[in-house]
Amino acid sequence: YTGLKRTPEEIVAEAIQEDVDVVGLSILSGAHVLLARKVIEGLKAKGAGDISVVVGGTIPPRDVEPLTAIGVSRVFPMGTPLPEIVAAFAKELREP
Asked: The whole model's pTM is what?
């Protein structure tokens, strides 16, 4: 957990510094496509494109496909049961 109101650049730097396998973005602002794109592009630019990015929060169904198209591994709209989220993270960590 990096705290609230982190920039995509800060998230990328911290993910690389901490050697994470998955970045989870929780977004309620409606800027999920833009922010996820910036994080994914930032990870790729820093040679860390193998870090998976998952997104949760206030995600309208129409935005799931655009998010996966830019490289988001999983999308968790509001109301996604916690066991489903935990299972998805476990799967992300097992897959190469």
From this structure: 0.89
Per-residue pLDDT of the chain (96 residues; tens, 9 = 90+): 787 888 999 999 999 999 999 999 998 887 889 999 999 999 999 999 999 999 999 999 999 999 999 999 999 999 999 999 988 888 777 765
Q: How far is CA 39 from CA 2, 16, 84, 94, in A?
A: 14, 12, 23, 22
What are the φ and ψ backbone dihedral angles of 56, each rounded to 5 degrees? Answer: -135, 165
45-52 contacts, C-beta under 8 A, 24 or more apart? 46/12, 46/16, 48/12, 48/15, 48/16, 51/15, 51/16, 51/20, 51/21, 51/22, 51/23, 52/21, 52/22, 52/23, 52/92
